[in-house]
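Journal club prep, shared notes

We agreed each person brings one worked example of a sequence with its structure written out as tokens. Mine is Putative glycosyl transferase, family 2. I'm keeping it raw so we can talk through how to read the token line rather than staring at a rendered picture. Sequence first:
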Amino acid sequence: MADPLVSIVIPAYRSGELIKEAIQSVFNQSYENYELIIVDNNANEETKEVIQEMIAESNKKIRLVYESVQGNSSARNKGILDAKGSYIALLDDDDMMHPWRIESQLSIALLHPEASIIYGGIDVCSYNGEEIHEQNLAPNVEFFVKPIMKSHHRFKEDPPLLILPSVMFFQKEKAIKAGLFDTKFNPCHTEDTDFSFRMWHSGPFFGVRKSVSIYRRATASFFEKKRQGILDWYQTRKNQDLFFQKLVSQYFNKNDSKNIKNFQLSQSQLLRETSHNILRYSDGRAFARRLLLRAIYADKLDLKNWKWFLRTYYSDGRLKNSLNIKSFANGKLKDDVNIEELEKLFLLP
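Then the structure, token by token:
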């Protein structure tokens, strides 16, 4: 039997029953010449049971592979490298595809072999999948990438969009040539930004003019179950810093004042966002104030920096209201993070 043209890759972790809907959405595709690869990335027992149930009940081909290194990058890379298809479609284990997804993205890929990623819009649904909250959302440029890249000659017509994995469609060999997903971003966060950006350097992006997938808006309890022990704000900021430093090494020009200012705008936003996390600690005010002073130094004209700096002097009650929280984080800031490491986030040469 000839190899399938398209390989659909679903990493499996802690989605439980939700992965059944993800798999079923693959079976519902109007295009049939595909294989489905499920990557068991240390999946919990509930998720494994659902996968085995779907394998047993379906006459469709599911290929189950294993990746012991925990993380989105490692899991997706395993699926891509094991794929028999020339084209890869990614899907997260709690999302779903519209029936026309593969057919519509493949048609563009065949028409434009120069494309690095074919994307599409995404619908946002409720956790139970019964209610659509937003429709056909288009990808945007990551907030801290935009100031740096807005002067790039490709930006106006073909900007470096952040493509969510569940709408990514690309040639296997182009992804391998670009270096696949960077495992330094394991377990998760910002790996899709980094991969999108490197693929953008490999060629233009093309989009389907309609929604191709459905993103499930997780409840707080599900997100806690799925990400418990592998993702917190500190890891998120460190991963953002890792990508920010990649941008610095590639695009920073100390002899170009406009370029420096663009990087400072990005730096300012990242520092302010980090201060929000730190202010959630009862002892976080002094350190948040230091970060906000750095943000103000980077961009004195951004009133948001000044407003947040003033908030560091609020009473506890008023600060909690401004952060929309009921109580401060358990523990002390110094017990949860490496302060010296935190000081070094988002530095410029």
